[in-house]
Amino acid sequence: MKRFIVTMTGLIIALLLLVIWNVTSGSVSVDGMQMWQVLLRQTREGTFYHIVWDIRMPRLLAALFLGGALAVSGFLLQTFFQNPIAGPYVLGISSGAKMLVAVAMILCLERGMQISSLGMVAAAFIGSLLAMGFVLLLSMRVQKMSLLVVCGIMIGYICSAITDFMVTFASDSNIVNLHNWSMGSFSGTDWKDVGMIVVLVTLTVLATFFMAKPIGAYQMGEAYARNMGVNIRLLRILLILLSSLLSGCVTAFAGPISFVGIAVPHLVKQAMKTARPLYLIPGCFLGGAAVTLFCDGIARSLFAPTEISISSVTAVLLVPVVIVMMVKREDARA
């Protein structure tokens, strides 16, 4: 309990510092006095007010909630497959969501229509479920988790190839929109998007939190969970639906973001020294929010005014974490 309180306190402090950094840094710097005047709405006009309230705050909140959603989705997938290297990006679930959203965007744009935020979420959710369905079918034939992860990566490549094929035959204006989104970015997020993100992510994470007890029993093995009265079939379906909805929501609004869903649950588990879902779910949410907010700040500030893909930043920072985790796991087996 003590480690949980210390870890959560540290994550909250880190988030507050990251929020201040993300508000003040970028291609246009905002000093501390200007930031507080704008945030407290003492100034309601001017360049700084527009930059903070219309550009940086929606982007900041989107990164916070979607980063948390991605980490919780990774935790659910790792619980489902009983393996710490399972995640929406590695298993091809994000690529499946990306494929369906790309198809929906092209079809709408070719007809002169603008796809709604709800439409993108629906397309991403269906794409996530399709990719997850293929992974589950393979899991019935493949016993080794390492082979299943490889199969998930191959499914991701297939989905990415189909997306590239669609982009190749799309019109030039559609290609620009798809390219910016498919690289992974929170740029262009507005308050309307933030409202839908907050509602979807909050409800889904709360549903996950209320499932903490059966998830904890499932972690102890299917036989133990059944003896505790857990409906295994229903629990698995809910794990699939909730993880797909969370990862689909992230992909719909920000594009594919790599390795947050794998590394963050592991880091939080190491910090708290526990595998209890009651502690890990809120910890993963805050950890994912902090890591994503930090990476997004680097993505837009490092080479400002040029912005780099957030997936490039997360890959550079989090791949070493995943490699160390895999090496330690193999050493523990030896």
UniProtKB/TrEMBL annotation:
<feature type="transmembrane region" description="Helical">
    <location>
        <begin position="191"/>
        <end position="212"/>
    </location>
</feature>
<keyword id="KW-0472">Membrane</keyword>
<keyword id="KW-0812">Transmembrane</keyword>
<feature type="transmembrane region" description="Helical">
    <location>
        <begin position="279"/>
        <end position="299"/>
    </location>
</feature>
<keyword id="KW-1133">Transmembrane helix</keyword>
<dbReference type="InterPro" id="IPR000522">
    <property type="entry name" value="ABC_transptr_permease_BtuC"/>
</dbReference>
<feature type="transmembrane region" description="Helical">
    <location>
        <begin position="308"/>
        <end position="327"/>
    </location>
</feature>
<feature type="transmembrane region" description="Helical">
    <location>
        <begin position="115"/>
        <end position="138"/>
    </location>
</feature>
<comment type="similarity">
    <text>Belongs to the binding-protein-dependent transport system permease family. FecCD subfamily.</text>
</comment>
<keyword id="KW-0813">Transport</keyword>
<feature type="transmembrane region" description="Helical">
    <location>
        <begin position="145"/>
        <end position="171"/>
    </location>
</feature>
<protein>
    <submittedName>
        <fullName>Iron ABC transporter permease</fullName>
    </submittedName>
</protein>
<feature type="transmembrane region" description="Helical">
    <location>
        <begin position="89"/>
        <end position="109"/>
    </location>
</feature>
<keyword id="KW-1003">Cell membrane</keyword>
<feature type="transmembrane region" description="Helical">
    <location>
        <begin position="60"/>
        <end position="77"/>
    </location>
</feature>
<feature type="transmembrane region" description="Helical">
    <location>
        <begin position="233"/>
        <end position="259"/>
    </location>
</feature>
<dbReference type="Pfam" id="PF01032">
    <property type="entry name" value="FecCD"/>
</dbReference>
<dbReference type="InterPro" id="IPR037294">
    <property type="entry name" value="ABC_BtuC-like"/>
</dbReference>
